[in-house]
## 1
Amino acid sequence: MSEEFIGAGWAFPMAVDATGGMALVRRERELEDSMRLILATAPGERPMRPEFGCGIHDYVFASADATTAGRIAAEVRDALERWEPRVDVVDVDVGVDPSDRACLFVHITYAIRGTNDPRNLVFPFYVIPAEEGGS
């Protein structure tokens, strides 16, 4: 894989390296940071780029069920295909954490474009479940 294809970018969260300069990430770490940043950004959050991000934040108050999981998977796939051209999204699967019903794990299977190098990324997404038995 050509490192020029992937490039380098600022570490996220931003940090300082040993020389006092901005810490950079390269290769696969750059792609993972980029994908996490896309998923963690809600559209409209960046004034100069209002369409950037992923629409999963619209589901914070949704129930953690199969319908919500399917919608989140579609939002993730659409956002990554639009905003991260260096990867091919193979599959997006969303499952509920058995120990915490408010946490959905977004399992992303992807390949670095132009390679046969399958990888995966797990992105936790938290919903605010409705209170049970409320008045």
## 2
Amino acid sequence: MKLTFWGAAHTVTGSMHLVETGGKRYLLDCGLYQGRRKDADQKNRHLPFPGSSIDAVILSHAHIDHSGNLPTLVKNGFSGPIYTTPATIDLCNWMLRDTAHIQEKDAEFLNKRIEKRKAQGQENGIVTPLYTMQDAERALPLFRPVPYHTPRDLAPGMSYESYDAGHILGSSCMVLHDSTSGPPVRLAFSGDVGRPNLPIIRDPEPMPPADYLILESTYGGRLHKSVSHVINKLADVVNRTAARGGRIIVPAFAVGRTQQLVLLLHQLANEKRIPNIPIFVDSPLAINITAVHRDHPECFDDETREYIIHGEDPFGFRRLQYIREAADSKKLNDLHGPFVVISASGMAEQGRILHHLRNNIEDGRNTVLITGFQAQDTLGRKLVEKWPEVRIFGEPMRVRAEIASLDELSGHADQRELLDWIKPLAPHLKKVFLVHGEPQQSETFAKLLHSTYNLEVRAPVPGQSFELV
């Protein structure tokens, strides 16, 4: 078995790992790289292999940095199966279409600006979307459902089995079993490892023994605050912003984070711990994704099931409004008084959240609430780092709004949680490959894995290959 790392190597986004064995080529994830716009566009457009050379894709979960470049792969000739869990397929059905729609709309918006500048002799060129809705539609029929704990044959002597990663709805860790060319090799891939006690979904499952492990390291050098404090912190942010008449603008991933926030706000509203202000989820994607959550209660934890048992919709309550139409989204700009708006994308890189930030970031009464990991060079990361000025749609804007963070909701296991997760695997592992982490996080965690479990650990660079025997 040969393993080559092409994405999420020495960086957090763009998960993509190539496995070659028995004359076949399998891709673990095919995600969008997110970061500096020009760099991201180059990396996402130019895949390091022809799509037609890949026999199958095994997808860990639906987040766009793991699934979002599948339409580009199809555009480049891929026509094989994409194996993943049923919930992930239902999520990708909406997410890939939405990403394509955003690519098209953003290109249209930027081209209008370019046309104005061209008329003034300031700029040339035209922006083309990374992929179109048509490319996304061609990818969707390729998905094949594989439930948890159900071995799936990929080829004679090659199979895989998935386990609940506890990261988002339908997220999986997996073990590939290869006996095509010699003694059996077991390669585990963590995808993104979740955290115990997060709202809605079950905790991460233990993994069976493996010889090699590809392991995420997003928070390999950090510890999260306890999840138990998150509801108090959320209440504080809402109360203090409402008291000064401001708006709470929340960039949030449409999958997982939006539903968690809605559930927590539902709880606070029931307990009358926040003022009676409007709460909006302004994202067609988040509305569709929330419907997918309702369709998969088998993935819920006991606390979320309690809402259903008592006849309540965990994702709907009196003050909450879901906004689908762009015209209704624009009306929020004219709304007086405090309110909460949750909108995608989670790293504030595209979508309606950019319009809300442009309209609200220069008002000191408002709060921008960051609720998840922000990759380097994204707008969300610049806000977390307290840049005094940021560019939105190419225009410089002063950051006068309060910037608050709700790190407790992170869907990624921290250093201690990763150590606990890998502990049962450690005695059997020959080597660990750290991915999906910035270099400092991976380096810190590599040293800790070696000192704690005496493991051989590598943090591969893009294009680096290893023979697994």
